[in-house]
Amino acid sequence: MKNLLLxxxxxLLASSAFAADAIVAEPAPVFSWTGGYIGLQAGYAWGSGNIxxxxxxxxxxxxxxxxxxxxxxxxxxxxSNNIVIGAELDVVYANxxxxxxxxxxxxxxxxxxxxEELNWSGAARLRLGYAVDRVLPYIAGGVAFGDVDxxxxxxxxxxxxxxFTGWTIGVGLDYxxxxxxxxxxxxxxxxxxxxxxxxxxxxxxxxxxxxxxxxIAYKF
Length: 220
Fold this sequence. Notes:
The protein is mostly beta strands and 220 residues long. The chain has a single domain (32-219), classed as Porin (Beta Barrel), CATH 2.40.160. Helix content is 11%, strand content 70%. Strands 1-3-4-5-6-7-8-9 form an eight-stranded antiparallel beta barrel. The longest helix is centred in the N-terminal third of the chain and has 24 residues, at 2-25.
């Protein structure tokens, strides 16, 4: 009887050990960043702008800032070594503006102001990141576009706008909350370049911005 009980006990222990090994040996599913995504984003921008008169000494330094929000979407491909490459497009509505006093010469104010305003912006970027399971730090850079208006309260002043083309670079972190829901935090620097405004403005205008953005996206 004792031998029978001992045999049954050993059999139960062996069965339990085999079941435990089977459970441990089963690999957990690994998240993959490969796939397309589309999402919403919002953020805050601040920067520097300049309006320099072409045919005279007049100039204005603006410090634009404000909020922005819009859409972004793209596609990622995760390689076997966990490096992730991708391409992304985004467009945002912007309420980013700044004003400054018009100086006819250094230290000589005119008594009038000029305003520089970013109405919308967009970018086409390439991304490079390294996946740590559901966390994806990355860098991104590409071409940037922006609609910039300038206006003045000087006599005869009005509002004029042009579409600027420049470049952008940034760093960010994506986090997969679920297999389909992605959260994002990002910083980017954008140089929209310079444009010459003809008569009656007759000035060179440029704009550079720093931006902090938060986003949430759906992964297909």
